[in-house]
Every structure is written in structure tokens, then in C-alpha cells.
Design a protein that fits this description.
alpha+beta; globular; 6 strands; 6 helices; two-stranded antiparallel sheet
Length: about 250
Amino acid sequence: MTTATAMTASDLSACFSGPLARFSGSIRVDDGAAHLHGRQLLDLETLRDLIGRFAATMPGGEPRAVVSMWSQWHFSNVVVPSIVARLLAGLNLPVSLSAGSFALHDNGCTAGVLIPSHAPLPPAEGAAAGFAGLIDSHLAPLIAFVASHFGVSSKLLWSNAAVSFAWAVQQCADHPDVDRDGLAEANGILTAVLTPAGDRNFLSGALKPSSLTPMENCQRRICCLRYLLPGMADCGSFCPLPSQARISTK
């Protein structure tokens, strides 16, 4: 694992190789350009605008499917860089809704996490601490808010987040610099029914047979509704719905 205390934004780019390379732009330097503060994701008008801009790019899309797909874009560009930074660099990205800032695409989708241009990022202090800001201070409040205002279930949204979490953990697992303690904690988050505090763990059980099984051999337990978006290919064997059910809606 790279020495955490000396790392800044530019140093993290080396962590994104192989399949992770497509997320190399998901950690961005805060250069003062227009961005979204995490607190704004809990503002109804702001979120309606973001999702509305995304919906405009896929006319005729079923509203719940649009929200689900927007959430997948958001989670992938927040969860994946957070996992990579934690497991491969020992760093906590500033992703809590109270402190984080996020870059946006013109279509209203999240483009990445903004980090300071000069100040080093804080090293993670213990494996669990490396995930608390992401899960408890970002995913949980945002999922509750979206589910309460946009007609999609919290189970679906947690499943979308869990798929991104599992994919990122699997990509990091075989990296020579992976933090083994952090990896064990991440695997536990994906499989344990309860959190260490005894609460229900909403990130577990999203995939069958297991979130630790290679993705190409997995299937979601809850459909993401992608097949209800015109012109967008469905998830094939990754979808839990029978293929005929998906085809009949086209």
C-alpha cells in the first residue's frame, strides 16, 4: 500500500489501472470550478433538477428506471473511488454529505469526488473508519431521501450501491498493494447480515450466489429497471428477471 500521509490528488491516478482505469477521472482536484456540495443532494429542488437533466437524455424512460440509473451513475463515481482510495492508498476521500463536494456532468450525473488541490488527504484510521463516511454519512442519508421523494424503493437503491461496492472491492482484491485488513472489512460489509452495531446491513446480499463471487458469475437479486429505458441494453444474465419479461416491455 502506498504511503498515505504523502499523497495528494495526482498521486492517486496510479491506483486506477486495468478495469479500474475507466474511473480514473472519478477523483478530481477542486480547482474552484462549478460543483455540487454534498448537502445539496438533500435539497429536493436540486435533486429534481439533476435527475430531470438526466431524464431529458432518454425521452420516454420510465421515471423509476431513470432515477435508478441516475443513482447507479452517482454511486459508481463515489463508491468506486472511495473503495480504491481506501484499499489501495489507505486514504479516506471526503465523501460525507456534510463535507464532500462532487463534480458534475452536463447531463446531471455525478462525475467524481473533489479533493483539495494541495493538502494531503487524511489517512484512514482503521478499516471500519475508512468506510463509515461513505456508508453512514453518504449512502444512508441520500438513499433515504431519494426513496422518500422519487418513487423508488430503498432496497433497489441500496442494491445499486452494493453492486458498485462489490465490483470495486473485487477489482482491488488481487492488487499487490491492497490493504488486507481493509479488504477483510470490505468483504465483511458485503456479506454480514448485521453491522458491528447490530443494525441491519443493507449492503449485504445484493448479489447471488455471493457478492464475493466474480461478477461475471453473479446475478443481482433486485432488478435495477434498466430494461425500461428505451434504447439502452438490459443487463442480460446479470438481471434477475426472465429474459422474456424484459423483452415484452420493449
